[in-house]
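Predict the 3D structure for this chain.
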Amino acid sequence: MTLDQIMRTAPVIPVIVIDDLDHALPLASSLVKGGLKVLEITLRTPIALDAIKIIKAEVEGAILGAGTVLTPKQLEAVAALGCQFAVSPGFTPALLDAATASSPCPLLPGAATASEVMQLLERGYDRQKFFPAEAAGGTALLKSLASPLPEAKFCPTGGIDLAKAEAYLALQNVLCVGGSWVVPKDAVLAGDWPRIEALAIEACRLRSNIRS
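Done. Predicted structure below.
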């Protein structure tokens, strides 16, 4: 799948931090069952790669990606596991070189300013993460970027909740949003998988609510 196809699959990409491998399967399964098939497992814990491996092997229908990919070595590692995409909070020349030169795993790099968006467009990245969304200027900044840089389409992430997501998704240059609100830590720790599934269902309704 292309990044564009992945970003259009569902209105929300869950940003997931896994601290306990026992949570990996039920958490991912609940999200997919609720309609959020695109999952971003962040490389913020020592077990993240193991969690990706387990989910990829066991959760049918999941479109699995790795987040917080910072180096060429990490990109190589997640590509070797069969991740269908990788996400970075920003970009470096080395990371972009690795992504275009050798990786079968498409990279969604992050940008927070017009200059960064332009640099990524020069390198062929017209699908980008807008991060940290709320801190960087939120919907107002994205509206400002839409006219001079119409080819850039975004997945805003950072400080977004259900209420804010609707405003982002209404923008012409936003294809989806990234969010951790669909995987609240207290629900994960309690093993409250029905609650997570319900949050996923609620998130999936965002797109239809906007279009209606």
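The mean pLDDT is 96.
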